[in-house]
Amino acid sequence: MNLKAKTAIITGGASGLGLATTKKFTEAGIKTIIVGRDESKLQAAAKAFGELCVYKVCDLSQIESIPNLVNEIIAEHGVPDILVNNAGINMKKPFAEVSNDDFQGIIQTNLTSVFVLSREIVKQMTIVGSGSIVNISSMASQYGIPYVIAYTATKSAIEGMTRAMATELSPQGIRVNCVAPGFIATDMSAKALDNDPARKQKVLSRTPMGKLGVPEDIADAVLFLASDAAKYITGVVLPVDGGNSVGF
Q1: Which of 64, 91, 167, 202 has the fewest C-beta atoms lying within 10 Å of its C-beta?
Q2: In 3D, which of 230, 20, 58, 54 has the Cα closest to residue 131?
Q3: 166 — phi, psi (to 5°)?
Q4: Cβ-proximal residues to 155 (8 Å cutoff; 6+ apart), any chain
Q5: The domain at 7-184+215-241 falls in which architecture?
Q6: CA 180 to CA 99: how far, in whole Å?
Q7: Which residues on adjacent β-strands are paired with residue 9?
Q8: What is the pLDDT of residues 203-239, one digit of tens each?
Q9: Which residue among the candidates 55, 143, 147, 151 is catalytic per the annotation?
Q10: Of the candidates 137, 138, 135, 110, which has an alpha carbon nearest to the alpha carbon of residue 203?
């Protein structure tokens, strides 16, 4: 895949899908800068994955801090070849009980911060004339799932933004793609499913492969789209879901 000597930024790279992607990237020889809020988790990941993994502490919902974050990373590591917009939060709550602050908080973290970070990175990728951005969406963008209205809104927007970015940026050498995970066994999905057996059974019954995915399934897809193996792929939303989006 010609990944040696490449540099990547992974947001939310110290837990869940991001952690699995960080592991996959460092194993492939990619210098990986992970960004998140929890320094203890970031430190643990950096220690586990060795010298190819470094971290930056940043609350990406504080969007005014993002330009400085990007400047620091570029000063220390150069312009990244790859950006993985993985960080995100969820909230399971009945529609009528979601407050304005609830909704805006998830929009800020899951969508606005992705836009701001991508914009700042693209300014630099444009100068060098190359780059690969992989956004992380969700099956929630493919069909209606109750109790996750704000999360669904952000992930639907991420897919639209992926296509718009790809159309505008690909002529400048910057590919933009998206991975849409199905139901993957993570701490986040456990909170949504383990205390709701009927919901979990519905998920499994409409998944042709009959099981939840594992974080490594997503990491493999992200690595592929980020790499030169996907050099003629841009603007796609790739479901990694065991067939859930086409199941009956």
Answers
A1: 64
A2: 230
A3: -60, -40
A4: 110, 137, 138, 140, 141, 180
A5: 3-Layer(aba) Sandwich (3.40)
A6: 27
A7: 33, 83
A8: 899 999 999 999 999 999 999 999 999 999 999 999 9
A9: 151
A10: 138
